[in-house]
Amino acid sequence: MGKFRVVSLVLAAAVMGAALTSCDDGRQSAAKQAAGQLASALAARDVGGVPMQGKDPAAAQQQLAAAFKGLGAVKPAVTAGEPKVDGDKAGVVLAYDWKLAGQDWTYQTTAQLARDGDRWLTQWKADLLAPQLGESEVLTFDTTAPARADILGAGDAKLVTERPVLRVGIDKSQLAADRQADSAAKLAALVKIDPGEFAKQVKAAGEKAFVEAITLRDEPGRTPTDDQIAAVPGAITVKDSMPLAPTRTFARPVLGVIGQATAEQVQASGGTIQPGETAGASGLQAQYDSQLRGLDGVTVHAQPADLTAEKLKADPGSRRTLFTKQPVPGTPLKTTLDPRLQQLAEDELAGIGPASAIVALRPSDGAVLAAASGPGSNGYNTAMLGQYAPGSIFKTIDSLALIRQGATADLKVQCTPTLTVDGKTFQNATGYPASSLGEITVRDAYAHSCNTAFISQRDKVSQAQLESAATSLGVAVGAPRLGAPAFLGSVPGDAGSTDHAASMIGQGRVLFSPLAAAIMAGSVAKGSPVSAQLVLNPQAATTQGGPPSADASATAASAPAGAGSGSASPAPSSAGTTASPSSQPGPPLTGAEAAVLKDMMRAVVTSGHAGFLADVPGGPVGAKTGTAEFGSDTPPKTHAWIIGTHGDLAVAVFVEEGGLGATVSGPLLKNFLVKAG
């Protein structure tokens, strides 16, 4: 009996312990649920639905909104720890993580919960929002932007760096109210901005405000001069600096510019960019904005809700600093652009009226040394994004495709004045020499650019084989190493008989950019496909307001593209089409294939259209001219192309409405090669 009684007592104790544990688990579980609800509500900045003790939820919400208003629209991440239950009370640690201007502010507070029947209520206090926050205090934060990082070129030359500027505007404190409108109009006319709009800005500004009209480079010879500005009553200049390229036009379509962040950029940044700050507005400045901008320094204050600037000045100790973090400088963006060659290319294009471009790269490593778009491009990146029919420079691809089908440079072909394919007549370019008609070699057909000779070989190479040959020369592929948006060409893999004939002379649906043309020439010079590179140390590219991803061909939304050939009507413009890398990549160019193509490009100089390049100092020059018809005029307008190789340099020159490649683009190429040395 005694033994049985002992066992019974043990079982009773076990049952009682289980009951007590079950009771504790119930309280713990309910407290944990209440803590989680509180954390979620705080993270949403909306505690109006949280059960509370001693405080109306609506009043708590009002206090929270006032306390967090100074932190902007950003919301914190809030997590609740495991509640510590003590009878009908519990304490829970709340972990906050704010991202303010990209910086992490983390801290913990403790919330007290009270059990009311089967519910746990939050005992609301201001200090569960932030450490030691008083009932009448609110949070604010200030930011300090770091200096924007430079964009560097070859040899770490500073392409974009802080350069002196003058901010020109009206100082209203120097003018009587009845004279401000007149001065605003005079200054606006001097700096060539809208007088009416500037007058409105001056009128709307504060009584002692400085209202900026324009920012000018502080450099010799600038206009307007200091004397001209000083002659306008109330007009002043304020010295400053900002990230600028060496000149206003230097590589501008590639490098881009900065400006005041748009509302869309501020919103898309998730709090990293604050209203009123500057951000990249175009080009590499926009694409790599986060890398160049760095992170703002952040200081968070707790202060009385009624604190004014005057009160703070009188009593600096009236607010407390809860958190501070120093600015994080941006990382310079390294590029391959050579300042001398870029400026040389821009100087050559300075007098060209239509859209134009010069692209130069180093075949051995693919470095893009110059990517210049002329003034006729109106700020568009013609050099890298233009989409144009390449004309006869495409015969380089024809030739590779023919070589792969067993042809040699000495193969005899027929060069006739015209050739008709399915009712469409093709002819040679205006001025084609009669002495080069008849039976000639492929080398001579390439050197003199006989359209009909290459079209006559259309049955020996399919459209798919042309596409394959293009990719073997680095064209119509993606650009994973480039680091910037680019269009590297489009060569369709299938085409009807007439379209295929047009493709043989670089028209129809074939499209190139000047960069693609330079890559093709560079691949011949190197003896293997060139993979172009512009940005050397890319970090994660931004997306707010920036250009598309750099690892795929980009669409050129406004670049005219030629189509038709000969005297036939051209096909519709292909401007704005989306071009994708080829789905039929070919085998890489071999050294033996490249040797044949080099020989043919050299023949263009020694016996063909580009004899003017024979006296370029240094090693031998190889070249190929191109003329592509576009539009519906009679006679049609033409794009003028020429590609050239000279040592470890490959260059493409393009003029949108340029006549013949040899006579228009050719001299630009020669001048560039001679001066490039």
From TrEMBL:
InterPro entries: Beta-lactam/transpept, Beta-lactam/transpept-like, MecA_N, PBP_dimer, PBP_dimer_sf, PCN-bd_Tpept
Protein name: Penicillin-binding protein
Coiled coil: none
Pfam families associated with the record: MecA_N (PF05223), PBP_dimer (PF03717), Transpeptidase (PF00905)
Signal peptide: 1-21
Similarity-based family: Belongs to the transpeptidase family.
The keyword Membrane belongs to this UniProt entry's keyword annotation: yes
A single cellular component GO annotation: plasma membrane
Residue span(s) of domain Penicillin-binding protein dimerisation: 144-300
Subcellular location(s) of the protein: Membrane
Compositional bias ranges of the Low complexity kind: 545-583
Example of a GO MF term: peptidoglycan L,D-transpeptidase activity
Database matches in PANTHER family: PENICILLIN-BINDING PROTEIN 4B, PEPTIDOGLYCAN D,D-TRANSPEPTIDASE
Keyword set includes Signal: yes
Keywords associated with the record: Membrane, Signal
GO biological process: cell wall organization; response to antibiotic
Domain NTF2-like N-terminal transpeptidase residue range list: 31-136
Penicillin-binding protein transpeptidase domain mapped to chain residues: 357-672
Chain spans, region Disordered: 540-591
